[in-house]
Amino acid sequence: MHERISDEIIEVLEATWTSEERGSASEQRIADEAMTDVTEALLVECEEEGFIKRFGNGQLKLTDQGRRTAEEVIRRHRLAERLVVDVLGMTIEESEADACEFEHLVAPGVTEAICTLLGHPRFCPHNHPIPEGACCRQSEDRLNSVVISIDRLPIGEIARVAYVSARNFPRIQKLSSLGVTPGIPIKVHQRFPSFVIQCEETQIALEEEIARDIYVWRK
Amino acid sequence: MSAAITEVQRDKAEGPVEEAQTASPRILLVGNPNVGKSVIFGYLTGKYVTVSNYPGTTVEVSRGTMRYGGKTYEVIDTPGVNSLVPQSEDERVTRDMLLSGKPDLIVQVADAKNLRRTLLVTSQLVEFGAPMVLVLNLMDEARSRNIEIDSKALSELYGIPVVQTVATEGEGLYQMFKTLAKARVPRDPLADRRRRLLNGANGGSITGSSMGGIFEAAAESGLPAQLTIEWLQTRDVNLREPVESSLSLSEETRAGLNRSLRMPMRTLGNKLDEMRNAFLDDAVSQYKKVLPGIAEEARDSQTLRFAYLFLALGLGVFLYTEFARLFNQIFGLNLVTPYNAVNAWFNASIIPQVMATLGGWKLGALGTLLFGELNSESGAYETGFLYPAVTQFFLLIAPVVIPLGVVLSRSRRFAEKLGYWTRGWQTGFPALIGVLLLMYEFVGVIGAGTLVDAFENNLFNRYLTPFLQSVIPAGGILYDFFVGDYGLISVGLTYALAIVLPIVFTFFIAFGLLEDSGYLPRLAILSDKVFRIMGLNGKAVLPMVLGLGCDTMATMTTRILSTKKERIIATLLLALGVPCSAQLGVILGITSAISAGAVLTVFGVVVSQMLLVGFLSSKIIKGQRGDFIFEIPPIRVPIFRNVWTKTRLRIKWYLKEALPLFILGTLILFILDRLTIPTPWGKMSGLGVIERSLAPIVTGILDLPKETAQVLILGFLRRDYGAAGLFELVRTGSMNAVQIVTALIVLTLFIPCVANFFMIIREHGTKKALFMLAFITPFAIAVGGAVAWVLRALNITF
User: What's the whole-model pTM score?
Assistant: First the structure.
């Protein structure tokens, strides 16, 4: 990012991204969702800058360039939500306002540090996917994560559950009925052929996909 | 329209309530899975329901009665639940039971060492407002982990009696029984906090006005507030429906449930959940104490040390025997195993003569059967069944199993180690092979070998049938009916009692031991990745392994799988490829007599076809694979009394279920054999017509002798009956190795037996059952044909 993109444009890109996530984007939808007034002039500006493509029938989509920019913004926003909820212990509603500020302020390098600190989370507290950054793909952690998913927790180490970031509710319920809820100490016994974790006196076998959704605080 | 439906459904929901008021008081046993509800049910009612050491043993509700103080109570054992918010079919039973009318008494059976999970269920149960008793079971396991539970404080917290028990040992059970009379309507410690939260929610700050409608409706219908919120969030419509229909909701609220209320409901649900979690954390830290290692186990006990020594020796002997046998077969070596050595020594000694003389002395035929006899011509000793059965047991199985049991029962540390060894792959797979080998020695060698030999060759073929043949005048219809080629006794009973029963018997014992040890769920860990190829997850290993006992029972167990798609695939695979124990015994018995290659071919083909069909159906059948989240129970020492009871009941069930079908099958064959039907090819018996009309398939595609058609018909009545028939065909030498392999593959893959077919209809409906039938039958024949063709083309004769 050489020049600073205006906050209004960022809001439009963000709204377009989330709309596309749920299906397709339309000008009406974006006007409803964006945290700023979506004027015709603003949309024209976005198109001229090469971020979006408008089809004239009210539909629009992100261009490749727009997608790259939006991805970063979304990533920062959702990481910020995670940070505020997991580390500062605020509720999801409270986190919203802070996260919005945050996404406009933080530099790319800092984003990576936060992502690592949080253990490269894959979903935000609302269970929307967090776009991967370079740090997630590298996965070697220069900075020690505070919160990590249990597939990275060393075998035998006891850690407290920070959150379960499953996209489906039944999964969270199932885990919580077996005793895996925030605050509970758990331990990983083995990773292969399936994960086996222990929580209280219960041993639970899990597939890896689910293990990656359980995040813990390391001591 | 929709209002009318609501009315009808509400009437339905109210129906059972009225019934319950007139009937005897209901006592509901509720609790987490695998905590001993069924044992306590057995104690209260004197009725045995299957008890095993893995979650999900009880998938159906069992009812019994109990008398107390001159009154009769109905006691209901429910499937285990970790939460009253159901995630799968087997979990909904308990919830629906509670929805359908308030029980007169709830007995919560709990795992004392897992207090948090226990109290989660308690907190949900108290919302119903029925009198309750909390039974903290498995206290022995809690104590051996130095866990102490403050029952008194818990009792004050909820205002209900709390008792501590070790149900399998009978400890505390009488006290529990007496306590039932002191049951109280519980105090809900969360009530105030919840009310405050709900009031906030009604105020509109987070939720708007319509959320209020739900609470009012819940309160009016007498439903628990927090649970109602959680129930209404269930995604599966089938699971949600009973709740929606017992709530009297306004039209808008109902519509809102699916749309606008989603988010507020979720938010409120989360808050309620958080509040309860905080409460549970507090309760656990207050009432559960883990004492520092005072109860350090007596490691240096003399018995334990000896048991370890014997275990090491026994394992050595076992491994040596198995390897020696393998090397002897592959490399043609002649390594002496202890078993061979003892046999050689025995045969050379004078004992056989003594035994034969003793046996023939007073006991007559029974003596010969047990102790063996000297051949009247050659003078060689022919063993009875006692000698081989005893030596096989003590030389091949006991050296490992007995010390293992002793060590396990004395050292928790070892039980934990064993639990660890059986679930990691480096040790888990060798352990699995060891378990399979032990099973083979017990079921294959002792059951299918020694016992079948004793019963079939000796009892039936040498004594019973010849005796009857000499009594009943030959040539008459009676003769044919009882002891002819398709006679009730010479075929029907011989197959059922002499071939199948010994195998089933030994299998059920071995299987019961495995069930109670807690080993089976560990297979789920090892096999999850394989089952995923088939659109299933590791949990599916339970129905599959149970299928080896009986596919019909196993089909019912598929309910522990969480999605419909999984249940259909598992049912299909059970019907397609999982042989029942007798069939497995026959397959092992026949093929191992041919060569290791034959064994591998049969199992290789069957397993690969299951993988293929599973893979394809996971692509075709719509729906999702369920999550693999599976509780692994601790390794426990099986209680032989329980294994024995289970085996006895299963045998009884087998006789009741299978014997009539064996008789029916024999009758059908008998009648077909006697019918004379004029056909274009001349006059033929009914059997001849069937053989003739199936000939293009049996002799054409499959290249089998035409009599195999009979086996396939029997196979539809019962798979093990077909297998027994095949066993006989092979014995009489009418098939070559390739034909045997082909026939075994076809019979294994072939249509499910009648009972299984009806169970599929019951679980999935007629349409799906017929569809499965229509797929499996031609598929089995096609695979069999392909195997026969390939084997012939490659000129493999085994």
Answer: 0.80
